[in-house]
Amino acid sequence: MARLTTRAFVGRLAGTPIFDPNGDQLGRIRDVVVMLRSDSSAPRVHGLVVEVPPHRRIFLPMTRVTGLDAGNVVASGLVNMRRFAPRPAESLIVAELLDRKVTLKSTGEQVSVIDVGIEQARQLDWVITKLFVRKPGTGFRRRGETQMVAWDEVSGLSQEMPDQPANSLLEKLDDMRPADIASVLTDLPYKRQLEVTQGMDDDLLADVLEELPDSSQVAILAMLDDDRAADILEEMDPGDAADLLGELTPERAEELLGLVEPDDAKDLRRLLTYDEKSAGGIMTTEPVILSHDATVAEALARIRNEELPTSLAAQVYVTRSPLETPTGHFLGVVHFQRLLREQPGTLVSSLVDTDLESVDPEAPLDEVVRHFARYNLVGLPVVDNNDHLLGVVTVDDVVDNMLPEDWRESHPASSDTDLISNRQAGEGDGN
After folding, report:
1. Less crowded by CB within 10 Å, the N or C end of the chain?
2. Strand-pair partners of 91
């Protein structure tokens, strides 16, 4: 159980579990909400951003924190499960203030904020009191000296935020899943979203985009220059990339397709011809495809690829040449469990499951769903009238398309649990 303390550093709090008074974990702290002031008053801490299952970020007023430590935090009260959204005058310490450039009043030097110390000034009232900062590197020193300063020993903290790197925030995102990173991005102001996306690798940003609602995908794609936007589309699952292109104007979609590699652009244009709620509209064009003379050893090597989604690694698809969609004659499916039971030198063509039915690319979503339910499938081949494999519908594609379009943003069935008060009513939020 956490002990009561009156000071803490936000960098150490991020990721800390939060418990109710009975010791049950309710979630983890992801950020701290503060109000930066233009006068000499210490910036006031309004509350914590808490991530509760499954990946929902909510607001916890500091008045509800009954025990605080670097190891864990205890809180009590009533929960409002409404998704957290910062108010215009609020700032997030981890997302916005870390890496911020400020000026030391004593020397005029520019320094970077590495961590922020908060302290309970009086009962139930927390404020920023300390900044842990780093000076620029000099000479052969790649990293400059660090020092602790009082918050009022620097200037620039309350001014409009200039362009700044996102190194500290990206480090904290590094060990998070794409769906969790997507949740973080949606909480950031536009300018900070731009800085974070600029610092991400293309493959990670592509994975994150796939986890965002359509409107957020379009907004973030618009932040990127044309060449990078095209690179991101190439990294995305073709089905997701086609869905994103379908949200753009036809003129904008064609501009980006003109910058995508010709083979990838050909696949995307083909996917765009299908209805979005058909088998062709939700399929992926990149399943694991093997030639009829491939061996079990080759098949196992392909599905061991750690970057391959689990749903695509569950089975391989055997065809005649060519082996890229649309393929040559489709022969059938081999499930990974069958591969594990056979000798490495066995030909996969001798193991195909020919009983598994395929669907036409125009098959509607409800027909696809019935196939998955009837045969307990993880993947369903999509084949044209000439028996060419066009793609595969995976179980995660089906689930995504069965849920409401706004399922990533919708509220849970029960909006209140025992933890946090209603922020909208202003109870204990510092306003």
Report:
1. N
2. 34
